[in-house]
Amino acid sequence: MADLDRAREALRASMTAWATLEVRGDQASVIPVPQLDALVLRLDAVDPEWSLHWRCDSAEPPVVCARLGLLGRQREGLATGHTLSDARAAALAEAVRLYGVHSVGEARWVEYDPEDGPNTADLEAELELEVTDAAPAISAPPEPPRDPQMDKARRYIDDMLEQLRAAGRGKEAAQAIMRGYGDTLEESRAIYKQLQELLKGPAGS
């Protein structure tokens, strides 16, 4: 039971990122989701055998299932989102909630800019306080600062995914992106190039 409590604290403390569920004009609905780098560090300390698997159930609209294995338990979260990346993050957040982490997760509406994405600045301080109050026992290295170039690369990939869906190549695009958008700028550029080639190629290739 003590290990499960530690796992819940680790999961709760990682909920410092955001996923966009829906966009309506200049407004977006967002929810707190795990920051993956922080999640990996914290769960490695609790259970070195933990696992995470993804499954894309639909490319348009984006629907993803996340299966999180921890301390011999398995929980699956299913979610949709504005993009496949958002759906992945929201599905993981749902799996986290199924482990009993209920203190964070309410959807909020914020300003949205097509270039910069949702403006969560006002929510981040509030979420940080909530997470800190909920999990005071967790200590881990600070999260790395967000890289504006990586954020821009992810938006370019999202734009390319939209073009592929419009061209009827959504399923192939989903398969290409299932491992994520890349951990480095070089990986993200390679994924973008792969999607470009997919868009240029003949349907069904």
TrEMBL record:
Keywords: DNA-binding. GO terms for molecular function: DNA binding. This is Single-stranded DNA-binding protein. It comes from Deinococcus lacus.
